Amino acid sequence: MFPKERMFLSGVSYNERKRQVVASFTGSHGSARFRYHFNPKAHFRVKVDSGELKRTFSGVGIRNLDVSVGHGVATVTAQDFSTLNVVCETASLHSGMPYFILPPERQFLIGKGWDYFDSFSFRNGEPEPENSFEFPDARLAFFSGSLRETLSALAKSNPGIAAETAGKVAMSRVLKVPPHEAPQLGLATRVFLENIMFSCSMPIYAAGSVQAPETASLDMAGIDFSGLLSVVASHPSNNLGFESLDCACCCPASADSKNVLPSSTVNVRFLREGFYFNPVSAAWAEMFHSSSQSKAARASRKEEFRLPNFPAGPFSRGETCHVLLADALRLRDSGEAEIVSHAELHWSCARRQSGLSLALSRLREALDNLSSAAESEIGRAVASAGLVYYTSASQPLNIYHSALLEVISAVLAGVPRLLCAKEDCFFDHRLAVALECIAGGVARELEQSASCNGYRVAAPSFATVLAGREEAHSVFRCLSSLCGVGKPYIKFGGWQGSHF
User: What is the DSSP string of 139-163?
Assistant: First the structure.
């Protein structure tokens, strides 16, 4: 007999011998388990067809694989996870790239579109996710009671452990990992991007490294809009993603098309002699520096002015050059250059939402829905226990919602920065340039608006603007008004330099 009450997905386990995944659901009064046949898979970069790839694996004793190749990426499905691990090791050895494969349980959840601790109904006999961020009053094997009972008891005896437990459940809900494998908050974005790349059939490489930030300025206030950038990047007009840039189906008819990105290039004529400018994109600046003459002059200027990236230049008066559209608009507004013609268009897909945009949009929707979910829980709490029950920060609902807010905010802020970190395995040049150009556009609009109000604003680093400490809150409100969002998408902090 099928469950009649809604339940929460509280566990997923992989049985390699039976080639099955078991999904466990628990509720306040019962539990249910469903078994599914499952074959794990992985994606690799290749330069051969599927037949030759199969022969390569067969030559080292790996058989019974399902192999398909498209656009230089091979998808390999194995009978079991142990075999897939051998496939991954072989592919890494032959390519020299350290590939990483997701655990089978996470692969299963991504394929089904499910999440731990989401609520499920069973109207048609099969679990149907409701994509809800309500409090998951589930029962777990390592809890003596329900999650609500556990958090309530811990809040009285050890509030720190209560917050840590709620944090692991929230991490599990957002990242599709079991609570006991929840990563530290600083690694949440990495797991989030791994899930997206897998859903887009993209190869995943072993983790890279990111440089630590420098000392913050003492006389300036930094405003970090990384979270806002995730919202803007996932907007239909941008639709940034690993698979959505310069797609074959949506090539724009002209530069005025809605899906044209600010990372397109235009030909400009410079109006000053010996002119340099600081590109909005660090990735593009690096490419310009490595491919253009006068490297020594740019290196000297970078060191002299303590610039975070190489400048573009030097240019003579009347000289023309291809530059990013985002930079060209800024140079035109300042009277330092004029746009002559369009050079190379870049665009996003206008027909299908990218995996990255979809995932970011869902996180934003989750943040927006947290308030309404809290109000619903509060109504039930008032009816049963009175006003004091839900106003206390030590109540399970408040503890869980605070943890969810922290995890989602960290991921939204972390995605743009990780995608633009050149040394990281998630770095994609086209995607990084597009993100940096969009960030530059946001900063440019803020600079113009702040200037009209008499505020001095600068954008010295990615997704960050600086303002005088006395003006910081006014600039914060100005940015919030311009973009229609506030906290937690925009926050103080994030300056990674040491001068204005």
Answer: B-TT-SSBHHHHHHHHHHH-HHHHH
Query: 375 CB contacts (<8 Å, ≥6 apart)?
Result: none
Burial (0-12, 13-18, 19+ Cβ within 10 Å), 456? middle
Please list the alpha-helical segments (H only) found in 6-49. Answer: none
Can you tell me the distance from the alpha carbon of 21 to that of 13, in angstroms, rounded to the nearest whole number?
Answer: 6
Tens of pLDDT, residues 289-324 = 999 999 999 999 999 999 989 999 999 999 999 999
pTM for the predicted model, two decimal places: 0.90
Give me the domains of the chain, ranges plus CATH numbers. Answer: 7-37+107-182 (no CATH), 41-100 (3.30.1370), 265-344 (no CATH)
25: left (phi over 0), alpha (psi -120 to 50) or beta: beta
Half-sphere exposure of 200 (CA within 13 A, CB side): 24
**Gap between the Cα atoms of 129 and 120, Å rounded:** 5
- Of 441, 435, 445, nearest to 475 by C-alpha is 445
Residue 95's alpha-carbon distances to 71, 91, 200, in angstroms, are 17, 6, 21
Cis check for the bond before 314: say yes or no (omega within 30 of 0): yes
- pLDDT the model gives residue 211: 41
For residue 9, the cross-strand partners are 25
The CA-CA-CA angle for residues 205, 210, 212, to 5°, reads: 165
Helix (H) or strand (E) holding 329: helix 325-333
